[in-house]
Design goal:
With 217 residues, the protein is an alpha/beta fold. The protein has 2 domains: 36 residues, no CATH class; 175 residues, Rossmann fold (3-Layer(aba) Sandwich), CATH 3.40.50.2020. Helix content is 37%, strand content 16%. It has 8 helices and 6 strands. The strands form 2 sheets. It has a 4-stranded parallel sheet, with helices on both faces. The chain has a two-stranded antiparallel sheet with strand order 3-4. The chain is globular.
């Protein structure tokens, strides 16, 4: 290890992406979190306009706290761990690959307030692992209230209706698209983004997220 990397490792040692424990020889997750994190299995629950979907974990236990630090407290480095782990799960479910990797963007106002688009950061790491360059296919044309503050599924669907537009239709037509987000709850946001892509003649839209709310069939 060259000197600057050694110093960086000494000052900023690698930590578990979920519990923040300093890691020794592990990568991204400590042994305890690797064993006990609430893993989200491949689900049979159908999401509208999505050909498939997956998530790393259920949104419970240590996962919400970790994601809140990532989204709202500037812990951008967590994108590395999330992205590496998510890419492995994507490769397991889609060994044949997809044509285009993209993400659900935040609004310009939210990006200015937060300082970054957390899902775009995630897409960069996933893209590095999958050897794909993420392509911006969607833009958010309306700053809507956050979905987290809305309980009713119908109200959540209404809140995201018409907020996304395709940026370059030629990059969508006939393509199998992998769409990323950080959290999926009712699926309203993912379904609306997928609907916009399918309306632009995408062949398929698959979805992957760091965490999912636990839902029954």
């Amino acid at each position: 290890m060259i000197l600057w990397k050694w110093l960086l490792h000494l000052v900023f040692p690698p930590r578990c992406v979920l519990c923040n424990k300093v890691l020794d020889k592990e990568l991204d997750l400590c042994r305890d979190c690797r064993i006990h994190a609430p893993e989200c299995p491949i689900s049979e629950i159908k999401r509208k306009f999505l050909d498939s979907w997956l998530a790393l974990w259920y949104y419970e236990d240590k996962v919400p706290g970790s994601l809140m630090l990532y989204k709202f407290r500037g812990r951008r480095s967590k994108a590395q761990g999330y992205g590496r782990l998510l890419a492995m799960k994507i490769q397991e479910q889609h060994p044949e690959g997809v044509d285009v990797l993209t993400w659900i963007p935040v609004s310009r106002r939210r990006k200015l307030t937060r300082g970054y688009d957390q899902v775009q950061l995630l897409a960069r790491v996933v893209g590095e692992q999958l050897q794909m360059k993420p392509v911006r296919l969607l833009k958010k044309v309306r700053h809507n209230p956050p979905q987290s503050g809305i309980v009713s599924p119908a109200a959540r669907r209404a809140n995201v209706l018409g907020v996304y537009q395709v940026t370059d239709p030629e990059k969508v037509v006939g393509k199998s698209i992998l769409l990323l987000d950080d959290i999926i709850t009712t699926g309203s946001t993912a379904s609306e983004a997928a609907r916009v892509l399918m309306t632009a003649d995408a062949k398929q839209v698959h979805f992957a997220a760091v965490a999912s709310a636990r839902r029954e069939k």
